[in-house]
Amino acid sequence: MALKQFAAIYHYSIPNTLEKEITIRTYKINEYILTAGEEIDGFYFLISGKYFVSSQEITGKELLLRYCQTPAIMGDIEILEDCLIQSNCIAAEPCTFVFIPKKIYEKELKYDASFSQILLRELAYKLRTCTISSRVNALSPANVRLAAFLCTVSSDSQVSYISTNNLEETAALIGTTKRHVNRILKQWMDQGIVERENDEVRILQWDKVKEISEDVRFE
Amino acid sequence: MALKQFAAIYHYSIPNTLEKEITIRTYKINEYILTAGEEIDGFYFLISGKYFVSSQEITGKELLLRYCQTPAIMGDIEILEDCLIQSNCIAAEPCTFVFIPKKIYEKELKYDASFSQILLRELAYKLRTCTISSRVNALSPANVRLAAFLCTVSSDSQVSYISTNNLEETAALIGTTKRHVNRILKQWMDQGIVERENDEVRILQWDKVKEISEDVRFE
DNA sequence: TTCTCCTCGGGACATCTGTCCTTTTGTAAT
DNA sequence: ATTACAAAAGGACAGATGTCCCGAGGAGAA
């Protein structure tokens, strides 16, 4: 049962008395898990799957902030800072979460030091990686970010292509335009790093892509 | 005495038994408080003054991450993640800190739920603002960042000028070059927004600068 | 099949920004 | 005052990236 996995992943056993308050939430691929600007209802502890986090400016510009695997927690900033949801979270694979309602946290877990330790570690991790990616996003040109994105997304899965249908979205995530992604891809084609066919871009030389990415990752 | 200020700022009273372990640390303006890559020795709780946080790439490129006033804590990421110091912290004004050695935290405060709550709030705040500035740094052009920097730095003080001696540093902090800052300043001069005289740049129309900044801040 | 419309890739151009180098300016020594 | 040196400002050019737009190809309707 999911609570066992929870305990294994997060090194914390939820008190028996609270178990009946905890629920499981699942999401399909590409489904929005959280939407920026809405109210948060509790903590989401990732048990399986992957999701990515992106944020939007008023201008509509978007930017990939993070790509998450277990362990990963959503809702922490919002509950601790008592604010609206800060970023969009979208399932990159089917996802399963253990959900702890905000009220239960406030009443039962807020002063549980072990539970706090989980949150502290998660926040510190997020902050460290956010700091890194902040620098990267600001100082790396778009071709590096695109390569880094590809390396991040397909680190283990065998996805060696980008569907052309997603080009627009991919571009937004790395903070640029479809036009520019096309430009980069064309350049890579000329160098034999990728090939395009119908609706997909196939990567022929992963080592080259990794080289271009300069070890930047959105983990 | 500083511990009283600490209690007032952070809403937490350090247990009497620990008071003798706590020290006060002060820094002069422009002094390095923490240097990236070194070992952390404890938590630093800002009591008075301001400092800024910047990080550096291997290339030497630098980027302003945050501008801090009370309440602000240093050392949290490093102690919680058990890693080396992530960023440079430099005093922007004379600064006073309450210093809690790492060992005291591990032994006495780690499972103190109230102390954890302070850290959680601070981390959540940092993460939220880091997320915002990440987007800003990536998606805003340099003139917006420069305006935002000026607004952030002089939000309350009456500093209405940049000393020319700092131009290089200012440029680095907003992630660009002195050449480009000069270009932006020249443009602002032509528009009558600033004037230059001897070693300083005086801002004539704060409202224009605020407008250019698009409400971006590095706080 | 043919026409229409929509989307995608890419050309052309403008803007932003970095690098390199020349000119200008300020300062100190003679 | 003159000269010499160092630091700052700015010109010139190149590369990165955004915007606008056009032509080609595919999907659906007639």
TrEMBL record, chains A, B:
InterPro entries: cNMP-bd_dom, cNMP-bd_dom_sf, Env_Response_Regulators, HTH_CRP, RmlC-like_jellyroll, WH-like_DNA-bd_sf, WH_DNA-bd_sf. Keywords: Activator, DNA-binding, Transcription, Transcription regulation. Residues 25-126 form the Cyclic nucleotide-binding domain. Residues 140-207 form the HTH crp-type domain. The keyword Nucleotidyltransferase does not apply. Gene3D superfamilies: Jelly Rolls, Winged helix-like DNA-binding domain superfamily/Winged helix DNA-binding domain. It comes from the Bacteria. It holds the Pfam family HTH_Crp_2. The keyword Membrane does not apply. PANTHER family: CRP FAMILY TRANSCRIPTIONAL REGULATORY PROTEIN, REGULATORY PROTEIN YEIL. This is Transcriptional regulator YeiL. The lineage of its organism: Bacteria, Bacillati, Bacillota, Bacilli, Bacillales.
